[in-house]
Amino acid sequence: MKVGDLVKYRERIPTDPEPSIVGDLGAWGNIGIVIEVFSMRWGNEKIPTPSIEYVDFNGDKIICKTVEVEVINV
Questions:
Q1: Rounded distance, CA 39 to CA 3, Å?
Q2: Domain that holds residue 36
Q3: Cα 63 to the center of its chain, rounded Å
Q4: Which strands sit side by side in the sheet containing 69-71, from one edge to the other?
Q5: Which of 6, 9, 37, 39 has a beta carbon 3.0–4.6 Å from 48's, enabling a disulfide?
Q6: Is residue 36 in some structural domain?
Q7: Is residue 58 part of a domain?
Q8: Nearest to 15 by CA among 2, 28, 3
Q9: Residues paired with residue 39 on neighbouring β-strands, in sequence order
């Protein structure tokens, strides 16, 4: 995964918070362009996890683990 890739965030799974709780913060199915690739620790993780920041087509920036998205470049 690299800067400029077009990515799609995964669909919601049962262990995710309810959409009524997270509101607009739920990015399930969201599409955007990668603007940064890095590693960071999530929660209590001991080892940094590959992560990205992407901007969606509403101009919102989303930070997530790379395993949460798929590259959909054509």
A1: 14
A2: 6-13+26-71
A3: 5
A4: 61-65, 49-56, 31-40, 6-9, 69-71
A5: 39
A6: yes
A7: yes
A8: 28
A9: 50
Using the structure block, give the residue that is written with the tokens 């990668």: 34
Q: How far is CA 35 from CA 22, 54, 56, in A?
A: 24, 5, 10
Q: What is the pLDDT of residue 51?
A: 97
Q: How confident is the model at residue 49 (pLDDT cuts 50, 70, 90)?
A: very high
Domain contains 19: no
Q: What is the number of structural domains in the chain?
A: 1
* pLDDT, average across residues 18-43: 89
CA 30 → CA 7, 14, 45, distances in Å? 8, 17, 25
Tokens 């997530």 correspond to 64
CB-based contact 52:64 (threshold 8 Å) = yes
pLDDT at 23 over 80: no
Taking residues 17-46, report their average pLDDT. 89
